Amino acid sequence: MKNKFRVVILGSDINAYYMARNFHEEYGIKAHLMVKTPMLFTSTSKIVTSEIVPGLWEKKPFLEALNNYANNHKGEKILLVASNDNYVRLIVENKKELEKNYTFNYPSLKIVNNLLIKENFYEFAKKYDIDIPKTYIYTCLKEEIKESKIKSFRYPLILKPSDGIKYHDHEFKGQAKVYKIKDFKELKQVIKDIEKSGYDDNLIIQEFIPGDDSMLFDSIFYCSTDKKVQLMSFAQIGLQEHTPTGIGNCTVLVNGFNEFNNTDDIKNKLIKFLEKIGYQGAAEFDLKYDIRDKKFKVFEINPRQARSSYYLTACGYNLAKYLVDDLIYHKKKKFHFIDEEMVLSFVPKKVIRDYISNEKLQKKIQELIKQKKFTRPLRYKKDCGLKRMAWLYIRDRNYIKKYQENEW
């Protein structure tokens, strides 16, 4: 049966590729990408078409490009998918204009702002019994950081922007996504550098929850347009990126495994939270297990699918199919918790062997690799042109070097 829809994905990163692969696997179609800047994740791919739109993060060129595409495909249903937070915000801010020609599933602008702006989220979380790390909100250019304000915190501390979108609009040398601060002197200097860049919003100063990368967890949801949770995963992370701009991005995880065996409580909390706030669309929770009080602390919620979410598809639950069944065919689905075991990795097996020090997790990963429950989202047998395979080989070699040179 011929597909009754087209797909436009905004972006050119890993997330865009993973979603394009989902649509290609399930429906055999090529997603059309609109990109501000081409990236090798997608520019080397044969399963997408691509259109460069200068200034795509700005309202006027964004709407012009999407309206032009819709005019060239009149009478057809077009699914619209964002690959990063900027595009999510643009979609929800321009919902009335876009829904004339596109179908998509994102929460309201109010909910997006309550999730993406971190101090809003932390207030939001407290209301709904979501545990978060101990936090202090610092206002750039309006106060001076004093040791007395954070005397109850122990070093190292975590420092990060409240508004990540605004923060990345003010680039500067040494800029990092998240900072791990060793003492008060370093804290003062990093805040000074951020303020010099022109960023004038809030910063989040947070306790560092003890433990390595394997204390981190990832949970993906799909909530239907009638604001019901249909799908949930819960995965223990083995490694994250160790470069300043990559910290927070997972590189290895295991779905269906939690060495602490206490998934039910956090599972029920997160489901209840999403349904109470009336969430719709995909969402990703970043969490860390705090061994001190045996609680999962939530760092943030991304109002979209994550770059690592392909493990849902590898387990048999393609997020593209959930979108299509919901938005195109209006199918109702019962809630499903994905407990199938699966390893997802962006790095070669050597990095897994050398850098995951958690013995329980390492053992589980090696068992699952032997059972062929192992997936690498960027390696797709129907998309293995010579240029792409050469790039993936070089990428693996660079990952080995990156982990050798960077510690977190």
Describe the overall structure.
With 408 residues, the protein is an alpha/beta fold. It has three domains: 5-104, Rossmann fold (3-Layer(aba) Sandwich); 134-207, ATP-grasp fold, A domain (Dna Ligase, domain 1, 2-Layer Sandwich), CATH 3.30.1490.20; 213-405, D-amino Acid Aminotransferase, Chain A, domain 1. Helix content is 36%, strand content 23%. It contains 15 helices and 17 strands. It has helices at 14-27, 40-43, 59-71, 85-93, 95-98, 109-116, 118-127, 164-167, 184-196, 263-277, 310-314, 319-327, 349-355, 359-370, 386-405; strands spanning 5-10, 31-35, 48-52, 77-82, 135-139, 157-161, 179-181, 202-207, 216-223, 229-233, 235-240, 250-255, 281-290, 295-302, 336-338, 342-345, 374-375. The strands form three sheets. Strands 9, 10, 11, 12, 13, 14, 15, 16 and 17 form a nine-stranded mixed sheet that branches. α6 (109-116) packs across α7 (118-127). The chain is globular. It starts with a strand and ends with a helix.
